[in-house]
Specification:
Layout: H1 5-10, E1 18-21, E2 25-29, E3 39-43, H2 55-63, H3 65-76, E4 80-85, E5 100-105, H4 124-136
Antiparallel strand pairs: 1-2, 2-3, 3-5, 4-5
This protein binds adenosine monophosphate and zinc ion (ZN).
Length: 142
């Protein structure tokens, strides 16, 4: 896509601190890291969200995650990491080109996702489960 920042990085039109790269996938350092070593991994082809990308292509993106994670944990001496992902503005997506964040974590980093978890009213969880299964229809992984 012409005006997409991450497509421009994929095409080499704007610079990025690139890490691993193949024909379909590119990883690079996030320019504004939550912690040093914060990595982004994305398909080179433009898809907006995980709802849009074909599963095989998403699989290719995910294949790069373990090696990058091991390397950045070693280099930054992180105790762990978060694999994080946003879809659409309401979920915090600022660049509408699907990508994963690999964020090295330290117990002292003071960062928190601040999750607010609730619980279901009686019957709601089962109702939702049935609706999702019905909507999946006869979908099977190819
Ligand atoms: P998200 O909020 O999930 O859409 O994440 C977008 C991420 O892209 C943010 O963490 C930004 O810091 C990062 N970002 C934006 N522009 C660039 C860039 N030119 N190079 C590297 N990272 C970028
Ligand atoms: Zn794009």
């Amino acid at each position: 896509m012409r005006d997409c920042v991450f497509c421009k990085i994929a095409r080499g039109e704007i610079p990025a601190s690139k890490l691993l790269e193949n024909n379909e996938v590119l990883s690079f350092l996030d320019i504004n890291p939550v912690n040093p070593g914060h990595i982004l991994v994305m398909p080179k082809k433009h898809y907006e969200t995980v709802m849009d990308i074909p599963e095989k292509e998403l699989g290719r993106v995910m294949e790069m995650v373990p090696a990058l994670s091991r390397a950045v944990v070693k280099v930054t001496r992180a105790e762990g990491l978060n694999l994080f992902q946003t879809n659409r503005a309401c979920a915090g997506q600022t660049i509408p080109h699907v990508h994963f964040h690999i964020i090295p974590r330290h117990s002292t980093d003071g960062f928190s996702f601040g999750w607010r978890q609730g619980n279901y009213p009686e019957g709601e969880m089962e109702r939702l489960r049935k609706d999702i299964i019905k909507t999946l229809g006869d979908y099977r992984l190819r």
